[in-house]
Design goal:
Layout lengths: L2 H14 L6 E5 L16 E5 L3 E5 L5 E5 L5 E10 L2 H9 L5 E4 L3 E3 L4 E2 L14 H7 L2 E5 L11 E2 L14 E3 L3 E6 L2 E7 L5 H7 L5 E2 L5
Parallel strand pairs: 1-2, 1-6, 6-9, 7-10, 9-11, 13-14
Antiparallel strand pairs: 2-3, 3-5, 4-5, 7-8, 11-12, 12-13
Helix pairs in contact: 2-3
Length: 213
C-alpha cells in the first residue's frame, strides 16, 4: 500500500469514528467511500443521491448497482430504492444527518471547493451543493496537501467554492479541525503528526484548541 493510500485509509478510519449514533449518512466520491469499511454499527444507514438508502460496501456487491460515483455497491436487508428526485428531496429536506465529502480546497472560513477546476472538464457538481445546504452535519476528508506539496487548507480558495456554508469538521492525515464561528480550530493531531508539521503545511489561519495545550 502506498503512502497516499495509507493516508486515505487513516483519514477514512478517523471519519468513521464520528459516526456513533443512529443516522443517515451520505458518502461523497474519493476518500469518503472508504469510510464504510470501518463501520459495523447497523444503525448507520448509507444514502446515495442516485436513489438508494441502505448501501452496503460488503464483498457481496451487485455489479448492477452503483453509487453516485458509479462504483458497484451492495444492498443491505431492508434497503429502499427511489428515484433521484426523491433522493434529493431527502437531502434538501434535512433528512440526511451527516455528509462526508472530499475537497480540492478548503478556505480558512471552512468553505470548500470540490466541484470545478478552471480549465479542466469535470462531469458536474453532483449532489455536493445540495448536501452542503441540506445535511445536518458536514465532514470533509482530504489529504492535507496536493501531490505537489501545496496546502489544500488555504486562506482563500482559488477554485470556485461549492457553497457559502462552512463545513463542520475537516479531517486530514495530519490533523482534525472543527469549524467554530467560521474559524478553523485545530482539535487533534493525527498519529505521527506534530504541531510544527501542521503549521508548516497549512496556509489557512487556525486557532490551536485547548486540548493541544
Amino acid at each position: 500500500m502506498s503512502s497516499i493510500e495509507n493516508a486515505q485509509e487513516l483519514i477514512a478510519k478517523r471519519a468513521a469514528g464520528e459516526l456513533t449514533d443512529s443516522s443517515v449518512v451520505n458518502l461523497g466520491i474519493g476518500i469518503p467511500t472508504f469510510v464504510a469499511k470501518y463501520i459495523e454499527d447497523d444503525r448507520i444507514h448509507f444514502h446515495t443521491e442516485n436513489g438508494l438508502l441502505g448501501v452496503s460496501e460488503a464483498a457481496e456487491i451487485d455489479p448492477n448497482l452503483v453509487n453516485a460515483g458509479k462504483l458497484p455497491v451492495g444492498e443491505r436487508i431492508g434497503a429502499a430504492f427511489f428515484d433521484s428526485a426523491a433522493s434529493f428531496g431527502m437531502i434538501r429536506g434535512g433528512h440526511v444527518d451527516c455528509a462526508i465529502l472530499g475537497a480540492l480546497q478548503v478556505d480558512e472560513k471552512g468553505r470548500i471547493a470540490n466541484w470545478a477546476i478552471p480549465g479542466k472538464n469535470i462531469i458536474g457538481v453532483g449532489g455536493a451543493m445540495d448536501l452542503l445546504v441540506g445535511a445536518k452535519k458536514v465532514i470533509v476528508t482530504t489529504t492535507h496537501t496536493t501531490k505537489d506539496g501545496a496546502s489544500k487548507l488555504m486562506k482563500a480558495c482559488t477554485f470556485p467554492i461549492t457553497s457559502t456554508r462552512s463545513v463542520d469538521m475537516i479531517i486530514t492525515e495530519l490533523a482534525v479541525f472543527k469549524v467554530v464561528d467560521r474559524q478553523l480550530v485545530l482539535t487533534e493531531l493525527m498519529p505521527g503528526a506534530t504541531l510544527d508539521d501542521v503549521k508548516m503545511k497549512t496556509d489557512a489561519s487556525f486557532i490551536e484548541g485547548s486540548c493541544l495545550a
